[in-house]
Amino acid sequence: MDSLLVGTFPKSCSYSFITTTSIAGGNLRRSKHCATNNYHSIASSCAPKASRHKRKIQNECNILRFWQPSLNHYCEGVEGQSKYQECNRKFAVKAAPEQSFESEKNILDVVKSSLDAFYRFSRPHTVIGTALSIISVSLLAVDKLPDISPLFFTGVLEAVVAALFMNIYIVGLNQLSDVEIDKINKPYLPLASGEYSISTGAIIVVSSAILSFWLGWVVGSRPLFWALFISFVLGTAYSINVPWLRWKRFAVLAAMCILSVRAVIVQLAFFLHIQTFVFKRPAIFSRPLIFATAFMSFFSVVIALFKDIPDIEGDKIFGIQSFSVRLGQKRVFWICVTLLQLAYGVALVVGATSSCLWSKVVTGLGHAILASVLFYRAKSVDLRSKASITSFYMFIWKLFYAEYLLIPLVR
User: Fold this and answer.
1) pTM of the shown model
2) Where are the beta strands (DSSP E) in 195-333?
3) Average pLDDT over residues 72-85
4) CA proximity to 133, closest of 269, 278, 307
């Protein structure tokens, strides 16, 4: 059709229609306008031939009008596809940081969950008690201000780290031996809840014991090493379920284990570690050291008795003959309160007989306040509520911490 029109019309007509047909592949609106103008020019310049070709031009214009919507739709589709691809690129760029953020968040959640499980596995109230007791007893070896030196801090740090590893071994071994009991008494512990497998707990326990003995050996302090060794033996005998051991089944043996470690080993061995190994001084048993050992003997017996009061249900099922099972919760509760009040009474006497005025005032007033708070809290405990009993047990540990703040002030 293009060749026919070119051969028939003059140049003006040929140019006009070529322009029209070329625009059909691109600018459709412009092509319609040009076709209409060219039609009028053809009618004026080629009048004799207009009648014959008028119909053909109209047909061409009709064809252009017919194809225009399809071409417009195609162009819009191409434009839309490019916009879709651009959106995809923007989404990909935007999604990548979001996915990275989600991945980092998941990693942080896993780390926080792992730390929380280990925190509960290590029994933090015992860890805090161990650290405070060693620091407090170490301060009893300080005679004058220059004794508080980098050498002193190094010796205390070595003792604390080694003892904390041993502490984790003892409480971890107890949990490994009491998984079924803890499912009733302490279901929030990692082994009882299933957060830790038995193999995971065993790895932590064995690693802690090895690290504790390794550090004690590297330091080279005999008092420190013997403190770790005796704690290891008594802690193992207390928990492990083998013939002739698992002394926690017997109330007196269980109390003796806790008393030996908390009252005797901690006070004497760690004091001698600082006194003889760090300061290179002869071993002495000063008045404050004797007071600390006697007072903590009362406190250790109270902890040994009271810890079984909230656990009476599981102990009955598994045949653990604690004092709470044998004597009842209420009687053991008030025995513990009475023993602590007696200990505070002894502390008031010791403080009153001190030759140092500031020590007399601080230790006397401090022990009087602690005794009053103890009596007030004891009256508000609901012995029918496990939560109330457990809360009071944690309060006893706070009194334990407070006493180690007062012990270095006894002079």
Assistant:
1) 0.72
2) none
3) 46
4) 269
CA separation for the pair 295, 407 (Å, rounded): 10
Alpha-carbon distance of 240 to 238, in angstroms, equals 6
| Cα-only R_g, the chain | 45
The three-point CA angle 360-364-365 to 5° equals 120
Instruction: Compute the 3-state secondary structure of the chain and give helix, strand, coil in percent, each to the nearest 5.
Output: 85, 0, 15
- Distance, CA of 46 to CA of 13 (rounded, Å): 9
The model's pLDDT over 167-223, given as tens digits with 9 standing for 90+, comes to: 999 999 999 999 999 999 999 999 999 999 999 999 999 999 999 999 999 999 999
The domain limits of the chain are 2-91, 124-283, 285-411
**Cβ proximity of 259 and 301 under 8 Å:** yes
Distance CA 411, CA 143 (A): 11
What is the spatial distance between Cα 96 and Cα 247, in angstroms, rounded to a whole number?
59
- CATH entry, 124-283, from 3.40.190.10, 1.10.357.140, 3.40.1280.10, 3.30.830.10: 1.10.357.140
Averaged pLDDT, 13-24: 37
Residues 303 and 336: their CA atoms lie apart, in Å, by 8
Sign of the torsion angle spanned by Cα atoms 24, 27, 33, 34: negative
Q: What 3-state DSSP class applies to 321?
A: strand
